[in-house]
Structure prediction request, 517 residues.
Amino acid sequence: QMGGQNLRKEHLYKVLVIGDLGVGKTSIIRRYVHQTFSSNYRATIGVDFALKVLNWDSETVRLQLWDIAGQERFGNMTRVYYREAMGAFIVFDVTRPTTFEAVIKWKEDLDSKVMLANGQRIATVLLANKCDQGRELSNNGIKMDQFCKDHGFVGWFETSAKDNLNISDAANFLVKHIMATENDILKSVVPDTISPQMDSSRQMSCSGCFK
Amino acid sequence: MERDVPPEVLRQREVKWLDMLSHWDKWMIKRFNKVRLRCQKGIPPALRGRAWLYLSGGKVKREQNQGKFQELDSQPGDPKWLDVIEKDLHRQFPFHEMFVSRGGHGQQDLFRVLKAYTLYKPDEGYCQAQAPIAAVLLMHMPAEDAFWGLVQICEKYLPGYYSPGLEAIQLDGEILFALLRRVSPVAFRHLEKHKIDPILYMTEWFMCAFSRTLPWASVLRVWDMFLCDGVKIIFRVGLVLLKCTLGTREKLKNCQGLYETMELLRAIDPRYMQEGFLVREVRAEDTEVPPQCKITRDNFITSGGR
Prediction:
């Protein structure tokens, strides 16, 4: 019993938060991690970090959230920021169409610079932020679903950092996908690297050991 | 701010600075070491704005380009940049009284200075890290002077830092890391072992000249030295902070990883950032930033980066 807590399984995931400048990346993270909102967050220069700890069934999930500067010229540094990420949020501002147009560019940048151990793209969720400011996307739901399918997003959410809408739902959704891909990798790595013949011979020698 | 300086000492310093400012060229040519020493001791707050403008060469630049700022100021500017600048106006020192109100004088002047720069250097446009630099200048001088101060910092002090490719800052990151090997082998090995790329921790430090990192009194003292001696002061401050934070095995015990290290570097112990301590350490830190830096950097940029 005493050692029970130490045995609790821990997952550590690096999650990127990217998107054009001023779409609310920092606000989303602050809301999610610190339960606060301000319209006066400083512009992010380079990269910023926050940690969110989740109790996930009987396990613990530690999410390292990497808040990445949105201005285009910082794109020259993204390779370093993206390294070893397991998942990502790409954020746009529903009140500014250009930030939505940039979503594809961010996704391409992401997919070209980071991938999982099995060569797959990292799980990415699209966030339509500032939904408190009027523009409803709900009517466009089908379009958005199709957009996600076409561009390799695992899903999308309308969010508001201001009104605390959907942010933890989106995070839970992403974590679920990360965990699923993690399991896939664990399963896939073994048969990919060891041929069936090798496998059987190993088993032979193994059972030999037991004899 | 700078409470430690007794009033009579401050008075004496003001007299000395007034004398220097009224015979500036002579002092800069003949007694630069004395000017430097006085910058290291801290410029009296009442004269800081003027002193910065003189030290940076912004004053000369302004005189050589009379009417230029007004000309740029009267132009509309490229909407592409205006859009970005406007988004940043309320995000600079949001708790400073000058910048607290939307559309207030501070934010208006910040807009004018940043917009003027995009017209002055259309190829470079606007980089978000320029806003805090301009804001610090505006806290000490009127818009036109702040503009020329910004021009000098972007062109002479930190050339290439804000240009679209951001190569210069990445190169200076590598140089900082190379210098750290000598200054603090323990810190160096730790960062190397955990593959912590310099741009993860030094981008904001260097691009904003520590204005968003240090307590305010220290920002002012660092800028006093930076505008006198140039980028090597920024390197030295960076080296001191790295050495103090990661320089012994004891300190590294609780930060076994990239993320833990980054957390430590983002919340540096206030002791190490206190102005008296920091200035002493920076003065003692005589690591010479190699003179070939700039040449290397120029080569680096013309060759198109790594």
